[in-house]
Amino acid sequence: MNMVKSFRVSDLQTLLASMGRSKSGLKQDLVGRALRLVQTEYSPELLKNVRQLYESRFPKTPGWLAARRPEGVSVAYSSLSSSPTATSQGADYLNGISKPLPTPAPEVKLVPLPFYQTLETLLPPTELIAQNNEKLQDSQCIFELTPNQADQIRNASELRPGIRSIQVVLRICYTDSIGVQEDQYPPNIAVKVNQSYCHVPGYYPSNKPGVEPRRPCRPVNITPWLHLSSATNRVTITWGNFGKRYSVAVYLVRVFTAADLFSQLKLCSVESAERCRERIQDKLRFDPESEIATTGLRVSLICPLVKMRLGVPCRVLTCAHLQCFDAVFFLQMNEKKPTWTCPVCDKPAPFELLTIDGLLSEILKETSEDIEEIEYLTDGSWRPIRDDKERDRERERSNTPEYPVVDICIPEANGHSPAHSSTSLTGKSGSGSVGMAGVTGGPAVAPGGGAVVDLTLDSSSEEEGGGAGGDSEDTEDSADSPAPKRGRYNYDKDLVTAY
Predict the structure, then answer these.
(1) What are the distances in angstroms from CA 381 to CA 274, 277, 320, 391?
(2) CA diameter of the chain
(3) CA Rg value for the chain
(4) Which candidate, 205, 280, 367, 385, has a CA 20 to 30 Å from the CA of 256?
(5) Helix H segments across 291-348?
(6) What sign does the CA torsion over 112, 348, 214, 186 have?
(7) pLDDT tens, position by position, 69-105
(8) Cα separation, 326 vs 313, whole angstroms
(9) What b-and-e string marks burial along 430-442, b requiring 16 or more CB atoms within 10 Å of the CB?
(10) What angle (nearest 5°) sits at the alpha carbon of residue 173, between those of residues 333 and 120?
């Protein structure tokens, strides 16, 4: 502690910069920052830097020059160098005084991710500490890759062009020691690796009005910007200081695809058909205390995610329902946008609790494509629902009444009233009504009892009809008589009859 307090401003700035801390501010700020650094992150590298700076500031002097030592400088350093205890335990002591035990920082645990298998921890979860009161802060972390780790990255296969299966990823979460923490980005985040900015996932647009876009917080791949050698890698994180505490960690991971997880699921998590039948019987077992007796449970064969027939039925062991969703589509959707939520009941659906339904897999193989629903019975058996649907369709067709269809497009012979013929849904025409209309000259009567009038005839068709069926002797009289009055729609007003 005394060594740090005796440093000048330039020494303090050098120490803080070497450990990735901000070197701006007044001397009292720099001293306080350096003391906190010594108390919280005590390491051999830090001790080495402190010793070098102190020796450059106060070089070792012979005993006869001890009287000329600057006033105010502690002489404990000479006792430290001459004491065998201090020499043998130099890594555990600072300025001859035992290092006080720092307050143990809360151990932050990040939630395991199904698509990432942690191979090695390059930097354990470390809290991002604000250096001043500014809203934007810069925090730096340093790590190195071993030759073995660098070779693993170089020799890894490619998932797609430019993306390798072995990666170095950066994860950020809240600083909280209670439970496991999910990835959570701070506001205004930017990540710079060896002086180059790397890509951070952006925001998902929201389709709902008034809902802010959501940013997917997933590990940040920093592999392309790293030195794949023994050189030191520096990662600078710019983040918004708005009162919340964050921690950062760096891991060497193996990245899986949806196909890889599906292979694991088929290999390790398939529930047998016998176990599925037992589960169904337990659900349908008669309960004397219940007022409602359940005799069957219907299950759809359509995936609720993509509205298509199930390929590989999958569900969550902790869910109470028997409805399944398609495993392949579920894994592919979580690979693009990880939510891990059951699409049936919206409860958490972690990969570790997914299972393939062996009974429903057999049912899908035995049923045809047109069957979309089945029903489980109390004894564990099942039956398709297709027959009930067809019976409902036939019942609807049998209950549909047959209304007559009236043909009003045939002209009558008298030239004044239209002919009428009724045709039912079976295609039978009422020719008798046409004959009666021709004889009586009056309007035809439909089977329902009402008069039917043809409003589609024009004057030319009526004149032709009148010439063909009328009396030739009355031609001159009819020419002198005035024409009947017609409305704007070109029909005789006297011939309009309503039902």
Answers:
(1) 11, 8, 19, 22
(2) 162
(3) 45
(4) 205
(5) 327-336
(6) negative
(7) 444 433 333 333 333 333 334 444 444 445 444 444 5
(8) 5
(9) beebbeebeeeee
(10) 80
Residue 62, pLDDT above cutoff 70: no
| DSSP H helical ranges for 135-234 | 147-154
Place of tokens 């809240």: 174
Residue among 26, 31, 25, 23 nearest 7 (CA): 31
Q: What pLDDT, in 10s, does the model give residues 237-276?
A: 999 988 889 999 999 999 999 999 999 999 999 999 999 9
Greater pLDDT, 329 or 48: 329
Please list, residue by residue across 30-60, b when 16 or more beta carbons sit within 10 angstroms of its beta carbon and e when fewer do.
Answer: bbebbeebbeebbeeebbebbeebbeeeeee
> The whole model's pTM is what?
0.56
What's 317's DSSP letter? T
User: 310, exposed or middle or buried, with CB in 10 Å at 0-12, 13-18, 19+?
Assistant: buried
* Structure tokens belonging to residue 116: 């990432």
What lies within 8 Å, CB to CB, of 271 at 6+ separation is 355, 356, 357, 358
Q: DSSP letter string over 119-161?
A: EEEEEEEEEPPP-SS-SEEEEEEEEE--HHHHHHHHTPPEEET
Residue of 36, 233, 256, 44 whose CA lies nearest to 123 = 233
Q: Is residue 145 a contact partner of residue 229, using CB atoms and an 8 Å limit?
A: yes
Q: Which two tokens stand for residue 140?
A: 């730096």
Q: What is the dihedral of CA 64, 67, 72, 77, to 10 degrees?
A: 20
Torsion, Cα of 484, 489, 491, 495 (10° steps): -110
In this predicted model, what pLDDT tens digit does every residue of 271-311 receive, in sequence order?
999 999 998 888 888 656 666 667 788 999 999 999 999 99
Count how many residues are written for the chain: 499
Q: Which amino acid is at 362?
A: E
The whole-number pLDDT of residue 10 equals 77
Asked if 369 and 353 touch (Cβ cutoff 8 Å), the reply is no
148-170 core/surface letters (b: 16 or more CB in 10 A; e: else): ebbebbeebeeeeeeebbbbbbb
Cα(407)–Cα(409) distance, integer angstroms? 6
